[in-house]
Amino acid sequence: MTLVVTYGTFDLLHVGHVNLLRRARSLGDRLVVGLSSDSFNALKQKQSTQSYADREVVLRAIRYVDDVFPEDTWEQKADDIRRLGADLLVMGSDWSGHFDALSAVCQVRYLPRTADISSSSLKSLIRQSSAAPPSQLGVVAGMRG
Ligand code: C2G
Predict the structure, then answer these.
(1) Could you give the 3-state DSSP secondary structure of residue 81?
(2) Pocket residues for ligand 1 (CB within 6 Å)?
(3) Whose CA is nearest to atom 30 of ligand 1?
(4) Annotated catalytic, 123?
(5) Is 70 exposed, middle or buried (0-12, 13-18, 19+ CB in 10 A)?
(6) Nearest protein Cα to ligand 1, atom 4
(7) What pairing do the DSSP bridges indicate for beta strands 88-92 and 67-71?
(8) In the chain, % of residues over pLDDT 70
């Protein structure tokens, strides 16, 4: 049984997140996600639209995700990996090299990021569309070509 672990904020869950979760799950038999807590996001200077509780509900509804636990610090990964008995840590390529030191406790793989989509770009689109007059509203086409 191969256990895969990944970490993230997963705010405004989008196709990029789902692609990462699907690929991570396909590399093992079980996928467990370390979900950034609201206090950890503050530490990361990351403004999350959804609370930890809501992001956890959404993540647990994704069929690729078998379990979720809180991520509160940068340093907890090695202990998490030992505690879970994880075989593989998967992260998106924007983290390439950042967690190589963890190869002491499990395999580490970076998967290609999905282009042209992020929670922050979604947020700015929502802000733009809420500022736009109704006549200009409609499917935010062209965002992903
Ligand atoms: N991701 C992706 N493609 C995108 C956007 C995100 O593959 N277009 C991946 C990221 O590379 C990451 C995961 O989805 O592996 C979650 O992304 P974020 O929610 O942005 O996570 P982040 O805030 O980077 O937190 O300790 C590590 C941190 O918790 C990572």
Answers:
(1) helix
(2) 7-10, 16-17, 20, 36, 46, 71, 91-92, 94-95, 113-114, 117-118
(3) 8
(4) no
(5) middle
(6) 16
(7) unpaired
(8) 92
**Straight-line distance from the first to the last Cα atom of the chain, in angstroms, rounded to the nearest whole number:** 39
Please check whether residue 50 is in contact with residue 17, taking contact to mean a CB–CB distance below 8 angstroms. Answer: no
Which pLDDT belongs to residue 130?
83
Location of structure tokens 């405004």: 12
Closest CA to 29 of 64, 53, 55, 58: 64
Report how far residue 106's alpha carbon sits from residue 80's, in angstroms, rounded to the nearest whole number: 11
Q: Which helix (H) or strand (E) holds 84?
A: helix 77-84
Q: What is the CA radius of gyration of the chain?
A: 16
If one residue of 89, 94, 102, 122 were mutated to test the ligand 1 pocket, choosing by the most ligand atoms within 8 A of its CB, it would be 94
Is 46 annotated in the active site? yes
Q: How much is the pTM?
A: 0.91
Residue ranges of the chain with per-residue pLDDT less than 70? 134, 136-145
Q: Is 103 exposed, middle or buried (0-12, 13-18, 19+ CB in 10 A)?
A: exposed
